[in-house]
Amino acid sequence: MRKISLIIFLAVFSFASFAFAEGMSEHQHGSAADAQTTDMSMEMTKVHVCPMDQYTSDKAGRCPLCGMNLEEKEMSASEAKDAVEKSKRGQGNEKGVRGSHSH
Fold first, then answer.
1. Which of 35, 36, 62, 30 minimizes the C-alpha distance to 49?
2. What distance in Å separates the CA atoms of residue 53 and residue 64, rounded to the nearest whole number?
3. Long-range contacts for 33-41 (Cβ within 8 Å, ≥24 apart)?
4. Cα–Cα distance, 69 to 78 (Å, whole number)
5. Residue 45: beta bridge partners?
6. Helix or strand holding residue 98 (H, E)
7. How far apart are alpha carbons 49 and 84 in whole angstroms?
8. pLDDT 10s digits, 17-50
9. Nearest Cα residue to 103 out of 51, 74, 65
10. Structural contact between residues 41 and 77, judged by C-beta atoms closer than 8 angstroms
11. Is 12 exposed, middle or buried (0-12, 13-18, 19+ CB in 10 A)?
């Protein structure tokens, strides 16, 4: 009885190992773009964000919309890239209105 249990265990273990190895090889054969996107979305980076306008920059300084100091914030690299690009295009303000603040 003990030999049969051992044989069954080894057979199940071998099958599970093979299935796991196949799943890993399929995952590793994804395109380079998929791998880069996955790596970038998991990587964290620091950006500087205006607390009022959500203007985002990769450098410390003042918000060009309202003059407030930008605050350091950590976010995924892909989110940071999108936010900085959006701000460079003039869409950093949540309301979509540039320079609408009274001073």
1. 62
2. 10
3. 37/78, 40/76, 40/77, 40/78, 40/81, 41/76, 41/77, 41/78
4. 23
5. 75
6. none
7. 9
8. 766 666 655 455 555 555 555 555 578 999 999 9
9. 65
10. yes
11. exposed
Amino acid at the residue 33 = A
Q: Per the structure block, which two tokens stand in for 62?
A: 């003042």
CB-based contact 54:65 (threshold 8 Å) = no
pLDDT at 95: 43
* Six-digit token string for 32: 């380079």
- The H-assigned helical ranges of 29-57 are 32-42
Is residue 10 pLDDT above 90, yes or no? no
CB of 35 within 8 A of CB of 45?
no
